[in-house]
Design brief:
Elements lengths: L2 H29 L3 H8 L3 H15 L2 H13 L5 H14 L1 H8 L6 H14 L3 H26 L7 H8 L4 H15 L2 H13 L5 H14 L2 H6 L5 H27 L2 H8 L4 H20 L3 H11 L27 H32 L3 H29 L6 H31 L9 H19 L4 H27 L5 H30 L7
Helix pairs in contact: 1-8, 3-5, 4-5, 4-14, 5-14, 5-16, 5-17, 6-11, 6-16, 7-8, 8-11, 10-12, 11-12, 11-16, 12-14, 12-16, 14-16, 14-17, 15-16, 18-19, 18-20, 18-21, 19-20, 20-23, 21-23, 22-23
């Protein structure tokens, strides 16, 4: 091969991988906020789960990306390990679509497909059309790259050294290791199978020499999910183990079958003059048959993964954090936005509940002070401040993710703004608790005690209606009016010496804290109203 051929091969591989990334990014932007809902609804039984896994993989042309997505969902406890089994099986079926399209020689229309996608990106104003255009353009670029690789490899059939090298692939162990190693290196079975098809199209290798490499490629594609699961939960690692065991079992079965039966010659006879179709057909047969064979044993695959990677009963590093988990570290991660929004929502609502626990206890302290409750309020305030810092950092990272769609970007921004208001709610509760330390309960009149009880009830009502912005706004107006009338009444009581100056000063500060708590609560309600992403339970 000349330098030009080598550069064409590398350029073709670059376009192939970039096209695949474009398709994944397009799917993320188009459906990132709905991927979890789609997967959850359609994985209620094993057959639908397999179909969903196959369809998602067919769209993004990458079983690795689908598996990494599943690892992320399992890690975030948004999907069970059993649901993950079916999607992983389907992903292995869906990845065969790339090879079949290559065998159909769609490279002739690839430039047209790429042009159509770019036209949608450049000449439409609709965000949805732009996202779909990205998927279409990625598909076209992928096959342009495939055609470049195939053309660049044509001279290899004249190289005796290379032909002798690939003949060693007929040794099952050598072929499997080469296929697994090369696929692990470029982290894409679709690309490595495509390169194998390009070699076959160039007349360098036949199916009898390529079959074991093909099986090894299915094992090598697991490396992406393995790397992505580093630093995640045991449950996420179990999902990766299922993916790996699925392909190892399939490779073992098909290696034995190919060694002792005429399966390879039978596949060759299906399309005797089309070597790329032979590889595509064997790839499809391998994954479809392995899925059919293992479908009844999905439960046992999950149990096996749980047995070799049992969940450790270790102490939580920081029990203050209930929901936020790090996303799998992989550039192929799709669905990360859905995971982030779900976890951020749950952790923010957890923070809100803690702030309101402080509010309730602070009102109780005004009526009956307790040193133990005083400690609980300050400890909870530390937790709220900690959550404010951690969630803010998590949101900042999520906002920097490329290809966020408008809905998710708005949701993340709203949660970020909410954190300030929630933190201030807890601060004002601490202020009220500080007023309670003056222990003026015995100096308060019955009417003043009733006002404090009324304020506590209004705060509880406001919290319960935060998801209804119109009701929250109405209640805020009522609270402003009540505070104004209470202040006037307090001034009159002070003039008539019906209350002490100390109690009056305390109540004045409490009115301010109470009013500001509900102002911040209204801000939270208004931000919640801006969120259009459906948050799954």
């Amino acid at each position: 091969m000349t330098t030009t051929n080598i550069l064409s091969l590398l350029g073709g591989l670059a376009l192939f991988l970039y096209g695949m990334q474009m398709m994944g990014n397009g799917l993320e932007a188009a459906a990132g906020d709905r991927l979890k809902q789609i997967l959850e609804k359609l994985t209620s039984n094993r057959f639908l789960g397999v179909i969903v896994g196959a369809l998602v993989t067919a769209v993004i042309q990458s079983s690795s990306a689908t598996t990494v997505m599943v690892v992320g969902f399992v890690n975030a406890q948004m999907m069970t390990l059993q649901q993950a089994v079916w999607i992983i099986m389907g992903a292995n079926v869906g990845t065969t679509i790339t090879g079949q399209l290559i065998a159909l020689d769609v490279s002739a229309i690839a430039p047209l497909v790429a042009f159509m996608g770019v036209a949608l990106i450049m000449f439409t104003k609709s965000a949805k059309a732009t996202d779909i255009g990205q998927i279409i353009a990625g598909l076209g670029i992928l096959f342009i790259g495939m055609n470049m690789m195939s053309t660049a490899m044509m001279p290899l059939r004249e190289s005796k050294e290379f032909v002798e090298l690939v003949t060693n692939f007929s040794n099952p162990l050598v072929g499997i290791l080469v296929g697994a190693g090369f696929t692990a290196l470029i982290q894409s079975s679709s690309a490595s199978v495509g390169i194998l098809q390009a070699l076959a199209a160039s007349g360098v290798i036949g199916l009898d020499g390529a079959v074991y490499v093909l099986f090894g490629q299915n094992i090598g594609t697991c490396i992406t999910a393995v790397l992505a699961s580093i630093g995640t939960s045991r449950e996420a690692k179990q999902a990766t183990a299922i993916h790996l065991s699925f392909n190892i079992i399939g490779t073992t079965i098909f290696t034995i079958v190919c060694m002792f039966t005429p399966l390879v010659s039978g596949v060759i006879h299906l399309t005797p003059y089309n070597p790329t179709a032979q590889i595509a057909n064997m790839h499809t047969i391998f994954n479809v048959c392995t899925t059919i064979l293992l479908l009844p044993f999905g439960k046992y695959l999950a149990e096996f993964a749980q047995h070799i990677l049992p969940v450790e009963n270790k102490e939580i590093e920081d029990e203050r954090l209930l929901y936020l988990q790090p996303l799998p570290k992989s550039k192929k991660m799709i669905g990360g936005a859905a995971i982030s929004v779900k976890q951020i929502n749950d952790e923010t609502m957890h923070m809100l509940s803690l702030a309101y626990e402080n509010v309730n206890q602070a009102f109780d302290q005004l009526l009956q002070f307790s040193d133990k409750t005083d400690e609980q309020i300050y400890k909870r305030e530390d937790t709220v401040n900690y959550l404010d810092k951690v969630i803010s950092e998590y949101i900042s990272t999520a906002l920097a993710t490329p290809n966020l769609n408008v809905n998710i970007s708005q949701a993340l921004s709203s949660y970020y703004l909410m954190l300030v208001d929630i933190e201030r709610i807890s601060d004002y509760a601490v202020n009220m608790n500080h007023q309670a330390t003056k222990r003026l309960q015995g100096d308060m009149t019955i009417s003043e005690i009733e006002i404090i009880e009324h304020m506590k009830k209004l705060c509880e009502d406001m919290k319960n209606d935060l998801d209804d912005v119109e009701e929250a706004e109405r209640k805020d107006d009522v609270i402003d009016s009540l505070v104004s009338s209470w202040r006037e009444a307090q001034i009159q009581a002070l003039k008539q010496k019906k209350c002490s100056s100390e109690v009056s000063m305390m109540l004045s500060r409490i009115f301010t804290d109470f009013e500001r708590i509900n102002d911040h609560a209204l801000n939270v309600s208004q931000e919640l109203d801006k969120i259009t992403v459906e948050i799954p339970d």
